[in-house]
Amino acid sequence: MDDSDLMDRVTPSGSSLGDAASAAGQSAYGEDEEDDGLYYIPERRPSLDLGTSPMDTSQWHYVDQANSPVLSYSSMSSEKSEKMEKLDESLTRGVKHTACGPEQVRERVQSSPLDNFENIQLVRADSYSSCYTLDSDDCENRIPKVRNKEDTVPESPDALVLLHDPNEIRHPSLTVDFTFKAISKTLGKLSEGEMHYFKRILWKRFPQSFNTPPQGMDLVDLVDRLLECYNLEVSLKLTKHVLEEIGKKKMVDYLQALRIRNEVRYDLRQSLKRIYGEMGDDSSKQGEMRSIDDVFTNLNIKSTSDNGPILEHEVLKIDKLDSNRKEGKQLSVQDLMSKEWLDKTNLRFLLITGGAGSGKSMAIKKLILDWVEEKSHQHVSFLVPLPFRELKKFEDKKISLLDIVNELYPETKQLRDEDYRSDECLILFVFDGLDEFCEKLDFQNTELLGDHAEPTSLNIIMVNLLRGRLLFRDIFMLTSRPLVRRCIPWDTHYDELDLRGFLESDKDEYFKKRFKNQDHADQVIAYTKSLKTLRIMCYLPLFCSLVADECENIFRAKGLQAELPKSLTYMYTKLLLALTRQYRVDGAPPLSPEEERDCLMKLGKTALTMLEKGQFKLTRCEWKEVGVSDDEAVVNSGLCTQYVTKPFILFQERVISFIHPTMQEYLAALYVFLSFRNHGKNIFEQQLKDRFSRMFKGHKAMEMYKSAVDKSLTYDDGKLDMFLRFLFGMVLHVNVDLLKPFCTNSSKWPNMVDDAATLIKKRIKENQYPGRNENLRRCLEELGVST
Predict the structure, then answer these.
(1) Residue 154: enclosing H or E segment and its boundaries?
(2) Which helix (H) or strand (E) holds 39?
(3) More exposed terminus of the chain, fewer Cβ within 10 Å: N or C?
(4) pTM (global) more than 0.70
(5) What digits encode the pLDDT tens for the residues 455-471?
(6) What is the pLDDT of residue 88?
(7) Where a domain ends, among 478, 499, 520?
(8) Phi, psi angle pair for 176, to nearest 5°
(9) Are both 683 and 618 inside the same structural domain?
(10) What whole-number distance in Å separates Cα of residue 455 and Cα of residue 400?
């Protein structure tokens, strides 16, 4: 076969291979002159002679071996998510490689030892060799012309040099995952025509990125190719440059906004992790801080509200107090303000109510940390906690909501005004402790406020937030003790959930997490189960922490074999002090010792009156006769709770109860004890007017206890059983010492344990009330006397 025959087979219609290549280039690339004369058909070489004559190597060209190809984002798509960070490191590590394309541009990559990411500079290199060659003497492939340095023609001005500052520090939030999503999301907003134009300019300006024109690539392949060729920083800059060239300035701003939000989100998460990442136990006496995951226990969150107090009781059977009859769905912290909840309800406000010590703040901390660690609520762009304890310092200032956020979290200063109003930038504001905001909220006469950047008072900001006038595209979560639900106006659409402490199984889980030594945890769990009332009250996380603190102190002082206290009165007194002092609402009007004592006496008198009647709730009208404001009883001290009952189908009323029936019984006993201790008065003396009143004045303490025992034995239903146990528990000196702040009589309290035990044993022996003997034995246990 001669040369002409070969040419006929290779080039149809008499066209040269170079012409064919040129024509193909016109149709594929849309550029007429770019490839003219680039390719030619070399002269046929003689057959390869492997004789003994020396080989001519004068025309050899040496090319360095190429390094391994740069990793591709898409090539890792099937890998597990935990390898993503390793991929990020590999993409941002210095890599040097050679890329050959139609323009013969060499990409030089240098690595900086300071910042561990690529620094890319694209320069035009002189070509001395070809990317293509003849495979054999039997077939001739097209070969780009080999140019010498002397006859190199000027390069096209369309290809750009991409420079990167080697000293620029990459923000740690810039990851492969974010970069891919950000570029994809931005380019996804382009129309089909705009996307075609983008690809054409990309091919024209940066041909070294592609072996073939990118017009046939879909969005995923295109972005993947960019990340394959360039590092993350350069990929973003390249995208913005091309968008600017095609006149899409808004898309450039949008991509930049995505990046700024990502940086702010990262910095905010780091800040929140420092603030909320660790927590002490509720009492935090030892000052030991532990990870919240090591401490947090699931909470009993009900999808309904107005469920009333927990009514489980060791002695009495108490019917439900006409509260919400719906059982309610069990929720987790992850369900609060979840994407599914938002889509289903279309509400912007969520109010979580719960009694003092029920775990509201613990739930909020868990929610924050789950967002920080990307375990939940990833539909939320920013989570901004604004606890009212922190907001108090702004009460006397003229300030805007934006200034408050920026002062508490300085990293948010980078956010633009549009970010607070964007549908794509959802912000969750969490207001913990609405009950601690003591200013009156006037929803009728307060001025309107629609600009979150306008300075005003904190009161006006809160009123307009709760009316839904501020940041109407964002969502809000509030926690509070029950009473202050009235602080949300009636015409604001919101959902209300009830946080009710621990379920039965969660009580054991709490102690297992609280004690690192499992032997200690097992012993405490067995201890709580041995005392039924103690076990019931462990539904309160606060009460659990008090029990754990007490047991921990005993273990530390006496070892694992130490005997744990059997006195219920001791733990209830600890709870009383925690609620009225340590957990008293910040900002509540301070009470003098006399006012505090008077408040407890009024609550105790009411508790005893209700107890004798078998009553466990009062309407708000009846409560007015108590002489203690519902704010003080429910919000400030946390000894009571308020909820709505539905005694009839179309009738509702607000009622007030003590947080648990045993707290009502304890306060009744405290009232009887302090009446005698401070005033020498036996409230069980027979009310026979003046004729007999003098006979009972100056009674000794044992006369008061004798009257209480006889009174309780007359009730067959045992309504005073727990009351009597608490009253005898107050005989112990350890409890008398705890109650000293409420005592006005400084005289020494006599040791009455033996006399009290003798009285109880006498009543058991008399056996006039056989059904009540078991409770009398429990009274002996409360005294620490063997039965």
Answers:
(1) none
(2) strand 39-40
(3) N
(4) yes
(5) 999 999 999 999 989 99
(6) 42
(7) 499
(8) -60, -45
(9) yes
(10) 4
* Listed residue (579, 500, 539) closest to 306, CA to CA: 500
Residue where the block lists tokens 């015409």: 491
Residue-level pLDDT at 420 = 94
Percentage of the chain beyond pLDDT 70 is 74
- Fill in the amino acid letter for 319: D
Q: How far apart are CA 420 and CA 507, in angstroms?
A: 41
Please check whether residues 472 and 334 belong to one and the same domain: yes
Q: Do 655 and 757 sit in the same domain of this protein?
A: yes
Q: What is the pLDDT of residues 214-272, one digit of tens each?
A: 888 999 999 999 999 888 999 999 999 999 999 999 999 999 999 999 999 999 999 99
My answer on whether 118 and 130 are in the same domain is no
User: What tokens were used for 248?
Assistant: 């899409």
What are the φ/ψ torsions at residue 695 (nearest 5 degrees)? -65, -25
- Does residue 227 belong to any structural domain of this protein? yes
Whether residue 770 sits in one domain with residue 631: yes
Question: How confident is the model over 412-425, as pLDDT tens digits?
Answer: 999 999 999 998 99
Residue with tokens 């302090």: 674
- Is 196 inside any structural domain? yes
Q: Is a pLDDT exceeding 60 seen at residue 694?
A: no
When pLDDT is averaged across residues 16-24 and rounded to a whole number, the result is 37
Banded model confidence at residue 716, pLDDT cuts 50, 70, 90:
confident
Strands of 543-664 (E only): list them: 618-619, 640-648, 651-658
Contacts of 84 (CB under 8 A, 6+ apart): 76, 175, 176, 177
Question: What is the three-class DSSP state of 134?
Answer: coil
Q: Could you tell me the residue range of the domain that residue 388 belongs to? A: 298-304+314-499
What count of Cα atoms within 13 Å lies in the side-chain half-sphere of residue 108?
Answer: 8
Measure the CA angle with vertex 128, ends 125 and 133; round to 5°.
Answer: 120
β-bridge partners, 385: 430
383-403: b or e for each residue (b if 16 or more CB lie within 10 Å)? bbbbbbeebeebeeeebbbbb
In this structure, is residue 357 part of a structural domain?
Answer: yes
- What is the DSSP pairing of strand 494-499 with strand 475-480? unpaired
Helix (H) or strand (E) holding 430: strand 427-432
Site of tokens 């029950």: 482
The pLDDT-based confidence of 324 (bands split at 50, 70, 90) is: low
Q: Is residue 488 located within the same domain as residue 629?
A: no
Segment 342-395, tens digit of pLDDT? 999 999 999 999 999 999 999 999 999 999 999 999 999 999 999 999 999 999
Q: What is the C-alpha separation between 332 and 345, in angstroms, rounded? A: 17
Q: How far apart are CA 123 and CA 637, in angstroms?
A: 74
> Which of 659, 660, 637, 507 is closest to 583 using CA atoms?
637
Separation of alpha carbons 160 and 147, rounded Å: 22
Does residue 181 form part of some domain?
yes
Runs of H (alpha helix) within 471-626: 504-514, 518-530, 532-537, 541-558, 568-577, 593-612, 620-623
Helix H or strand E encompassing 279: strand 278-279
Number of structural domains in the chain: 5
Same domain, 238 and 364: no
Can you tell me the distance from the alpha carbon of 272 to that of 267, in angstroms, rounded to the nearest whole number? Answer: 9
Question: Does 660 share its domain with 691?
Answer: yes
- Beta carbons of 494 and 347 less than 8 angstroms apart: yes
List all residues 6 or more positions away from 756 whose beta carbon is below 8 Å from its beta carbon: 702, 705, 728, 731, 783
Collapse the DSSP code of 270 into the 3-class scheme (helix H, G, I; strand E, B; otherwise coil) and give the result: helix
